[in-house]
Predict the structure of Receptor expression-enhancing protein 6.
Amino acid sequence: MRSAYALFLPFDDISFIAFLGLYLMFGYGASLLCNLIGFVYPAYVSIKAIESSSKDDDTTWLTYWVVYGLFSVAEFFSDTFLYWFPFYYAGKCIFLLWCMAPVSWNGSQFLYHSFIRPWFLKHHQAVDSVLSDLSGHALNAASAASREVFQALANSLTPGVEVSKEAMK
C-alpha cells in the first residue's frame, strides 16, 4: 500500500526519510530545510491551539516556542563553529523533531521542566528588575530624542523660536 507521500513523491516513506536525512547532511540549503521543519509545523499547530478551547495545547506549544527561542539564540552565537560539523543540520533537525514530538516526554517539555523553569524561578525577580530599569532608560532616551527632533523641526520652521517642554508632552 502506498503512503500519503506517494501522491506527491515517486518513492515510499523510508526512501523519503533516507533522502531527507542525506540532504540534511550534505545538501545545499540544509539550514533552510531544517529551519522550515522546526518552524512550519509548530507554527501551524500553534495557530490551531490558539483557536481551540483547550489550554493544554496552548501550554504545550508555548513551551516549544520558549525552547526554540533559547535554542535559536544559543545557535546564533555558536553557529560559526557548529556548521562545520558534517551532521550538524541532521542533528539539529532530530533535536527539533524531538522537541515537537506529540508525546509527554518530548524535548521541549523535558528541557523546560529540567532546566529552563528552575532557572527562571530562581532568577525571574532579578530579570524583571533589570527589564524595568532598561524600559525606564529606554523611555527617557526616547523622550529626550523626540524633544530634540521637535526642537529641530521647530527651529527649521521658525528659526530662533524655542519650543517649551510643556508643548512637547
